[in-house]
Amino acid sequence: MVMQQTVIRICFEWALATMELRKAETYLHIWEALHSTLMPLGDDVELALAKARLYRRQDRPQDAWKLLQGVPTVELPPYGRAQVMLQLSHVTLHADAPFNALPALMECLALCEDIGSEVLMAQAKVLLARLYVAMERAEDAVALLEEICPYVLEHGGWKLQAEVGLEMAKAYFVLQEYDKCLVVLEPSKVAAVNAEDLLLGVEVGMMIARVYHMRQDWEARDRVADECLRWNESMEASREREAADVVSVLEGPHALLRVLSDRGMCVDCGEHTDPPYDVSKSTTANYLTCAEYGHCYSCESNNHCRMTQSYAEGSMWSALMVSELCWVGPLPSTNDDNAPDEPDPSMLLSKFGVRFPIGCQTKETGLFLTQKENGIMGMSQDPNTIVPFLVKSGVLRANLFSLCFADTGDSGSTDSYFPSSVGSSFASLYRTIANGHSYREDDAVLLSPSDQRKLPNIQIVLRGTTPGSSVVLSIPPLQYYTANADGSVANNIHFTQSSGGVLGASTMANFDVIFDMDQHRVGFAPARCDDAHGHGDFAPNVSKGQWTDKSFWEVYGTLVTAVLVCSSGGLAVLLLVRVLGRRQQHWTQVALEESDES
Fold first, then answer.
1. Domain 279-331+343-396 of CATH type 2.40.50
2. Domain layout of the chain by residue ranges
3. Among residues 411, 410, 296, 275, which one has the least CA distance to residue 359?
4. How many Cα neighbours within 13 Å face the side chain of 250?
5. In this structure, are residues 163 and 199 in contact, taking their beta carbons and an 8 Å threshold?
6. What does pTM read for this prediction?
7. CA dihedral 344, 348, 349, 354 (to 10 degrees)
8. pLDDT for 525-552, tens place per residue?
9. Is the dihedral of CA 281, 283, 284, 286 positive or negative?
10. Rounded Cα–Cα distance for residues 491 and 438 (Å)
11. Could you report the per-residue pLDDT of 551-571, keeping only the tens digit for each?
């Protein structure tokens, strides 16, 4: 019986190392059956620890955490408690929230000190070094690992030697000491191969490829990356339960990503300006679980978080959430040999980068299928948008940004939407001012630019930040008409909403729009956004100050209480739309009193 259990344990460890996870499950079931007999090898804790390690390799950290939390540690001897705390530290140590692992890790270190277990102490210090790197204390991580290196090299197994070298290389990488990275990574690679741990070998190879990329040794990097890809393909063929993708390939000297396969890409998406982003080819991306991201629409079978978003104009997307290192700004040029010297991507990442949750789209509909750009960047007040992350990381000083939409190109949600209850009165008033020209929301018409210029402007009056003040946005016809490919034009201001409304780019184009999120203010300044030297003859204009119509605020003061008042649900907007003729002005009331949830 003892011999059988010993063989099963060895087979389980081998299957776990080679990522044959279905076989590992089978061996674990046999182990459980033998454990229930009269002469089990080990106790319940040993079996629970083995199961937790399997869950970790299956990318099931929540299941591992629940299993370990159920172990009665108070009844265990110190060595058993230390083993449980070590596994809990593995499960809870995450780059986005490294402090979650600190309680279990500190208890594990204290227990190891008490019982004098140098092996467990070394394993715990490897995790502590990883925690130091996540806390931006790379020097402390190096010092800690150098302290345990002599013992690990003399007494530690191949796997522990590979782990120590890998974590030391990660610390050196943060310190930009790339030569030292290679010094420790080469023996780590040999140790991972000797340990027959396929996943660990891929991780070491990924790190070597990253170092060669930073040194701009593209040939060496691609050689290692191709080797990693073969390892990954072997691992994918072995495991039958999906786990997180780990291979990462970099292409340079200017590109950050190289797409080598179609695995995991968006199959229901349009063709855009750039190749699709493939999570499995990134060195810095991690799928977010539903426990890590609190706004999931649903949880996949592997506990990956899925988000879905719909928009007022009918488009939607669905995506898996990923934690990635991002910065705002263009990538260096890839095809201009005469371009001036450009910053190294690694410098941009270290200076301006921030770890940020992004959605990797697997489905697109509506405008997302046909737009030129690869995705959408939300700029709402939600704390999960990019600006708050940049402020929190110290890249930006204030929670403030500006947008400047040109009159050409596609900005996404270009149209504006107002309540249907005022559509008929607006159309009637427009026809009167425009000398019989009808405002058709759904029909395209043939109008030359000169004919469009004869039509009235639409003005949107926004109440200012001080009593009695206002801001007037004047939208010219060349801006509230959108040109079609066949030469016709169509209105982009619609009256279709049951309540609430949306100010799209059709009302913001050729304005420099400043969003001050902390002070809950929005500012408008006329601009020619596609030309730094001025605005054209059809650009909008803005005026401000005391409203000249003395009766205006007495009549409409209750209605127009705010414009773009920031609320928890979105933007609550109260507007007054004016149609201007040459000699007279008329008003129609457009009350947008409810938050836009779209």
1. no
2. 2-238, 279-331+343-396, 416-590
3. 296
4. 27
5. no
6. 0.44
7. -170
8. 888 776 644 444 444 555 555 444 444 3
9. positive
10. 11
11. 433 333 322 322 332 222 233
